[in-house]
Amino acid sequence: MTTVQYRGFAGVRLEADIIGSENDPAVLLLHGAGQTRAVWARLADALEQAGRRVISLDLRGHGGSEWPADGRYDFDAMVEDLRAVLAQLGTRPVVVASTFGGWIASAALARDAALLASGLVLVDLPVGGDSGAALRIGEWLHDAVSPGPGQPACDPRLADAFDTAALAERLADVAGTITLPTLYIHGLTSDLASRADAASFVNRLPDGELVEVEDTAPRFADDGSDTLGAYLIDFLERRVPRESPAYRAGSDARTFRDALGCFATGVTVVTAIDPDGVPIGLTANSFTSVSLDPPLLLVCIANSSGSAAILRGADHFAVNVLQIGQQPTSNRFAGKGEDRFAATPWEIGEFGTPVLVGSLGSFECARDAVHEGGDHFILVGRVLKAIFEPRRDPLLYFRGKYRKLHFV
Prior knowledge:
Layout: E1 2-7, E2 13-19, E3 26-30, H1 41-49, E4 53-57, H2 75-88, E5 94-98, H3 99-108, H4 113-116, E6 119-123, H5 133-145, H6 164-170, E7 182-187, H7 195-204, E8 208-213, H8 226-239, H9 253-260, E9 265-266, E10 268-273, E11 279-284, E12 287-291, E13 296-302, H10 308-313, E14 316-321, H11 327-334, E15 346-348, E16 354-356, E17 361-373, E18 376-388, E19 396-398, E20 401-403
Parallel strand pairs: 3-4, 3-5, 5-6, 6-7, 7-8
Antiparallel strand pairs: 1-2, 2-4, 9-19, 10-11, 10-14, 12-13, 13-18, 14-17, 15-16, 17-18, 19-20
Helix pairs in contact: 1-8, 2-3
């Protein structure tokens, strides 16, 4: 076991234990209020034996993590703590979170989830649709973080840190925004969520599963639960398997496409003027430099594209590299049935090609060569003029989704 430290929101020091090989898929365990990472000890061992790398994290103000001098324990700070840790991992783990930790994980992964995690498991997540649910959860949360006999597991100041009614209202609609494969493990005797409320929450998840455990204590996300481990490992093996997907010639083309999607790219719009003087363009991310002397670049164009014939025959074309604010432009030029240029600022460049105003960079090219490439053709251009804007960030594309550049 290795004990490591992460930087949370506003630089707060967060402590975690890690076991398992760094080459195995990662699972991050997040405990509930008033607990520490030690609560996961047996589960962490079981996950390691099942071929997982396990990161057990202490929340701020709990266990070995920093108890901040300013007493900042608001919910948003804890959400940003988790997002900060996930961004530092270098891998996208499955997040397993119990009770109050489940609230934190749900809020942290309600946006940009695919950037940070590959799955989510919620254990005894407090949800409730009746008027007394917020009060009941508030009483539980206060009791959980109140110091007990001996040294408290968490900072006593946590007891008064949360407006539970406001949190419950804020998280009421979060389920529909969590796009990860999600498992909700619900104890049928839980006093934090009724059977109906648990089912309602899972029904709103875009990709959710519900497991109901009958013979359990009111809360079973603790060190003594082998049942939790069994359900969790089953979910991991089905939804986030250890073995990497493999493509071999003749097998599913989608797997090949997903493998190619592991290469992060920028996004471009390739433009030209048709024989009637009308601008045409399409979105492409198969773009690369070829040579500095002479200055050559290439783009790959699908033969099925409506603009393919025009780009094949165009003497000149432009490649416009998009910046982060041009995601709507990318979508517009990737779609059909819309006047793409009517809604896009553009101008005629020096060499007669449409140049999109405000792009990260634009390359005006003369056609140098065209090569066949299966269901695409390779259009090689000799660069006549290049302009770029160094103060903007690129629009990125990775694993089928737009991404943002994060400077670390």
